[in-house]
Amino acid sequence: MNHKQVAVGGDFNRIFDHKDYLAMISIPDEATCILRGHLILEEVLNLWSSKLTSTEDLYTGTFVSFKTKLVVSKNLGMSEELFTVLNKVNNIRNKFSHRKNYQLEKSQIESLKSRVDGIVESAKVQKCETFHVFVGGKDENGNLKEITYTWNDSDNRVKFVLVFVILMLKITHWIQSEFNSRGINYTIVSTEKS
């Protein structure tokens, strides 16, 4: 297969660390997958708040909950639709944190998918159900292995990852547009790899 890969760096490097996404798709534990996604979204909130306030790290020196960062981000101009989606992810994460043996529910994934498919329509990104993730590497025995994850063949954890990647693509489009319209300097270092 001929795949184009783009490395993201600059201000977005903590949001697009490929190790986070590989861990989300590879680790079979739902709670760990959700937590990793939640941490990535927290970096989005940190970037948004820091750039809008021209502060290196707006939240340094004290613990600030995700929900508080989300509300601050909304007060700084985050759209209501993004606020609602990120709040849904936070609610899912909190269920894993406060309910022993909690498992993702199909209805949660479907609701999240519908919300993500409906936001940031200016980002020409495919729908969650048609998106797939291709992972290649070596298995535990050192043999080359390639896996393609699709909506129809996936469990709820992998469906969450598919929805999450589409969400991140839409957030990136939205945040770039907002930074540009507000005259905020940011960097995305991209290099093409073969």
Could you give a short account of the major beta sheet? 2 strands, antiparallel
Distance between the termini: 11 Å
Whole-number average pLDDT? 88
Reading side by side through the largest sheet, how are the strands ordered? Answer: 1-4
Helix fraction, binned, reads 40-55%
Continuous helix count: 6
- Rounded to the nearest angstrom, the radius of gyration is 17 Å
Order of helical and strand elements: EHHHHHEEHE
Helix/strand-derived category reads mainly alpha
Q: Number of folding domains? A: 1
Number of strands: 4
Shape: globular
Strand content: 5-15%
Low-confidence parts = none
Present the secondary structure layout.
Elements: E1 5-8, H1 18-26, H2 30-53, H3 66-75, H4 80-98, H5 106-118, E2 133-138, E3 144-149, H6 156-182, E4 190-193
Antiparallel strand pairs: 1-4, 2-3
Helix pairs in contact: 1-2, 2-3, 2-4, 2-6, 3-4, 4-5, 5-6
